[in-house]
Each structure stands twice: as structure tokens, then as C-alpha cells.
């Protein structure tokens, strides 16, 4: 086993050919600038780690869930004192960086598994979607809430969901903004294994052990054949997001969310 | 109405189990956010548990503004 590398928001290690990346930023693994920097640090060492590994498992040690998505409070607070153009430039830079991270995991020669539970929203859903397999416990909920803020998913969610699922499911999730439970997500093909509450990590580790039995080169060839990376649409998504983000309605939506004392701030 | 009362009873039982409070700690017209001391993400946990239990889908936008067990039971009964 390699030493466990622990950053402020993540930790990772490699044991017996399996790399485990754990998210551990309270309260719900929101992805802000620190998580992004830590993910970049992980991706920087991934080429070395994966030389002696066949599987990558991503999981969360936070009880609330896998990941609640982008850190909207940081996004709002960072941008509120900026001019509009600077605010959009800042978002574009963030999106380019998170796309680089997620593309690196998506393109990894490893077989990748997201072991998810609880809240798997927005950017957290998008992080799960870069993985080859999603193993979910029955309490998981998936959601793209971005339209509620006047935005679209910005971390590659639409192109990757389109890659994996029928368009009707994509429209349902995107255009209603509703969250979907894991049972339904398994029925529509998003979740590859549905397990009992608190069992997703155990099931993911078992699956990783199965992957280790295969010839690594064959797994790489198979993955390359079945998992194209939608680069053009990913780039287009960034442009559409930035265009939408420049509109005053988005700032107003973010302010409503951040300042809301409503018990349902995610449900405008 | 008996059916609605049964749904209320089942919701309260599930909520009490999930949030680890005594069953008689909650009543049909309680504000469950205040009574259980939960936030919006925990309310979604309850929603998931209810969907699994009643074998329905209850879109979370139908939860908007719902804070008591009786209204929640009404929303669920409309989906059964």
C-alpha cells in the first residue's frame, strides 16, 4: 500500500492495484477552489499511481452524501464584488480547470468506479458520471439543479449524461431539475449496481477486486472502444455556461440561494 | 381519510426511525424541519426513504413549501 496522501478536502492511496480517492470536505463535499486544487494535485500524480493499478474508486466519507456539487456560496461571494466580465472570466477559468481534471479521470486507462450515497447533485453528479461504473446505495439521490439558478450543468454533465443514457431521461433530469432516487436511476441504466444503505463502498471494493483479475491491456482496449470522450460538446458546454452566467438573473439566483432561509433552498 | 391517517402514521414512523427520535415525539401537524431539527438535504433523505417505502416517485418540487407530515401525506397519496 502507498502512503495515504491527505489534503484539505481529499485523500488518496493505492493498495493491491486499486486507487481509492476519498472526498472528505464537510458539510457535503461542495467543490470550490480548494477541492479543485486538491483534485488537480491528485490528477497530477495519477499517471504514476496508475502504472501499478487497474482500478480507481471514488467515494465520500461524508455522511450527507457523495457530493452536493459546486460551492455556490464561494461562487457568489467571490464574484459579487467583481465586474461582470471579470466574474465570467473567473468562472471560465474554473470550468476549464475542472474539465481538465474530469477529462483526465474520464480518459484514465483504469476502470473507474464511483461509490455513491446520499446527495449526488450537480458537480457531484458530474464527478460520478466520469466514472465507468456507478454503484449506489438506496438512499442516493441524483440531481441537476442548475436550471433553478438560470444555468446549465457546467462540469460536463449534459454531454456525459447524453453519452450514457437515453435522451428522454436526460431531458427529465435537466428540464425539471428534479432529483431522482437510486432505484429509478438503476432502472434507467445510470446506476450499475444498487445496494443497501451504507453498502456502496463494500460493493465497489468487491467490484474493483473483480477488475483486478483481468488483463489490464484488454480492459484498456475495451474501455477505449465503449467510452468516447465528447470533447466538442464539453467545450461547447463551457461556452453556453459562461454566456448564461453573464446574465443578471444568475447573480440574482445565486444571491437568493445563498441568502435564503427557506428550508428548501434547493427547490425554487 | 383512514387511508391518509395510515400514510401519516407510516411517515411519522419512518421519520422517527431515520432521525432517531421517539415515535411520539412527532405529530401530524408538526413542522418537521423544526421538530426534527433537519435541513433541506436531510429532508431529501426523508423523501428518498418515503419513495422507497411507498414505491412511488415524489418529485422534490412537490415538496416545496411542505413542512408538516399531514401535507406530506397528502402529496404522497396523490401519487399512489
Give the C-level CATH assignment of chain B: Mainly Alpha
Distance between the termini of chain A: 46 Å
Spatial order of the strands in the main sheet of chain A?
Answer: 1-2-3-4-6-8-11
The CATH H-level homologous superfamily of chain A = 2-enoyl-CoA Hydratase, Chain A, domain 1
Helical stretch count of chain A? 11
Poorly predicted runs of chain B are none
CATH class identity of chain A: Alpha Beta
Radius of gyration of chain B: 11 Å
Mean pLDDT across all amino acids of chain A: 93
Q: Which CATH-level-2 architecture of chain B?
A: Orthogonal Bundle
Chain-averaged pLDDT of chain B: 90
Percent range for β-strand residues of chain B: under 5%
Tell me the CATH topology of chain A.
Answer: 2-enoyl-CoA Hydratase, Chain A, domain 1
Please describe the biggest sheet of chain B, giving its number of strands, its sense, and whether it closes into a barrel: none
Structure overview:
- The complex is a heterodimer of chains A (268) and B (80).
- Chain A has 268 residues and is an alpha/beta fold.
- Helix content of chain A is 48%, strand content 17%.
- Chain A contains eleven helices and eleven strands.
- In chain A, strands 1-2-3-4-6-8-11 form a seven-stranded mixed β-sheet, with helices on both faces. In chain A, strands 5-7-9-10 form a four-stranded mixed β-sheet.
- Chain B has one domain: ACP-like (Non-ribosomal Peptide Synthetase Peptidyl Carrier Protein, Chain A, Orthogonal Bundle).
- In chain B, 29% of the residues are buried.
- The A-B interface holds A 28, 64-65, 68, 118-119, 138-141, 143, 176-184, 263-267 and B 33, 39-41, 43-45, 47-49, 51-52, 57, 59-61, 63-65, 67.
Amino acid at each position: 500500500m502507498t502512503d495515504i496522501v491527505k489534503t484539505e478536502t481529499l485523500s488518496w492511496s493505492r493498495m493491491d492495484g486499486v486507487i481509492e480517492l476519498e472526498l472528505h470536505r464537510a458539510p457535503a463535499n461542495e467543490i470550490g477552489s480548494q477541492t479543485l486544487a486538491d483534485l488537480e494535485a491528485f490528477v497530477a500524480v495519477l499517471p504514476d499511481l496508475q502504472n501499478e493499478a487497474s482500478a480507481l474508486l471514488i467515494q465520500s466519507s461524508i455522511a450527507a452524501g457523495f457530493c452536493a456539487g459546486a460551492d455556490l456560496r464561494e461562487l457568489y461571494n467571490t464574484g459579487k464584488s467583481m465586474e461582470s466580465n471579470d466574474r465570467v472570466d473567473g468562472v471560465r477559468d474554473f470550468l476549464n480547470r475542472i474539465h481538465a481534471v474530469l477529462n483526465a479521470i474520464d480518459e484514465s486507462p483504469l476502470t473507474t468506479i464511483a461509490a455513491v450515497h446520499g446527495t449526488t447533485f450537480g458537480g457531484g453528479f458530474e464527478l460520478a458520471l466520469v466514472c465507468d461504473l456507478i454503484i449506489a446505495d438506496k438512499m442516493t439521490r441524483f440531481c441537476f439543479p442548475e436550471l433553478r439558478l438560470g444555468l446549465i450543468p457546467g462540469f460536463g454533465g449534459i454531454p456525459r449524461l447524453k453519452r450514457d443514457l437515453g435522451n428522454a431521461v436526460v431531458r427529465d433530469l435537466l428540464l425539471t431539475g428534479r432529483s431522482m432516487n437510486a432505484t429509478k436511476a438503476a432502472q434507467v441504466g445510470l446506476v450499475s449496481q444498487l445496494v443497501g444503505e451504507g453498502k456502496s463502498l463494500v460493493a465497489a471494493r468487491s467490484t474493483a477486486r473483480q477488475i483486478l483479475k483481468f488483463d489490464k491491456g484488454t480492459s484498456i482496449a475495451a474501455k477505449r472502444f465503449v467510452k468516447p470522450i465528447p470533447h466538442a460538446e464539453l467545450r461547447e458546454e463551457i461556452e453556453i455556461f459562461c454566456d448564461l452566467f453573464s446574465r443578471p438573473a444568475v447573480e440574482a439566483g445565486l444571491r437568493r440561494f445563498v441568502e435564503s432561509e427557506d428550508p428548501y433552498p434547493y427547490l425554487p | 381519510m383512514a387511508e391518509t391517517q395510515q400514510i401519516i402514521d407510516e411517515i411519522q414512523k419512518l421519520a422517527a426511525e431515520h432521525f432517531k427520535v421517539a415515535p411520539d415525539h412527532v405529530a401530524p401537524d408538526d413542522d418537521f424541519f423544526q421538530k426534527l431539527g433537519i435541513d433541506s438535504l436531510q429532508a431529501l433523505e426523508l423523501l428518498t426513504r418515503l419513495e422507497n417505502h411507498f414505491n412511488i416517485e415524489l418529485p422534490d418540487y412537490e415538496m416545496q413549501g411542505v413542512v408538516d407530515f399531514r401535507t406530506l401525506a397528502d402529496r404522497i397519496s396523490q401519487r399512489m
